[in-house]
Specification:
The chain starts with a strand and ends with a strand. It has one domain: Bira Bifunctional Protein, Domain 2 (BirA Bifunctional Protein, domain 2), CATH 3.30.930. It has helices spanning 17-33, 64-69; strands at residues 3-4, 7-15, 38-45, 48-51, 73-76, 83-86, 91-92, 95-96, 103-104. The protein is an alpha/beta fold and 107 residues long. 21% of the residues lie in helices and 35% in strands. The strands form 3 sheets. Strands 2, 3, 7 and 8 form a 4-stranded mixed sheet that branches. The chain has a 3-stranded mixed sheet with strand order 5-4-6. It has a two-stranded antiparallel sheet with strand order 1-9. The chain contains 2 helices and 9 strands; from the N terminus they run E-E-H-E-E-H-E-E-E-E-E.
């Protein structure tokens, strides 16, 4: 038996974090509804620090004001990580996958 799953991909180039997060959430909802295929977004973010559910104020080692002056965005996310720094020239590939088992491929 062969398992087959279609995967879509989009190259977004370099972008700020928040618009990409908004797109990722939208695509995730569409994927959960079954209206799009599994999708990977290839993106390079402008400087951003993400604050996950496990973040605490002491994890941020510079003030929000200083980070803003330096052009570093802050984004609070619902993921389980603590604090993550994403910098330009570091590409990431967030995905919108339906959390379902692979389906057998006919034939």
């Amino acid at each position: 038996m062969t398992l087959l799953r279609t995967l879509g991909a989009r190259w977004l180039g370099r972008q700020r974090y928040e618009p990409v997060l908004t797109l990722q959430r939208k695509l995730f909802q569409e994927r959960q509804a079954g209206t799009i295929e599994d999708t990977v977004l290839f993106v390079e973010h402008d400087a951003v620090i993400t604050l996950g559910r496990g973040s605490k104020p002491q994890h941020l080692l510079a003030s929000r004001e200083l980070l803003g002056q330096l052009g570093v965005d802050l984004a609070e996310v619902e993921r389980g990580s603590r604090t993550t720094c994403l910098l330009p020239n570091c590409r990431s590939a967030p995905r919108s996958l339906r959390r379902a088992p692979l389906r057998p491929c006919p034939g």
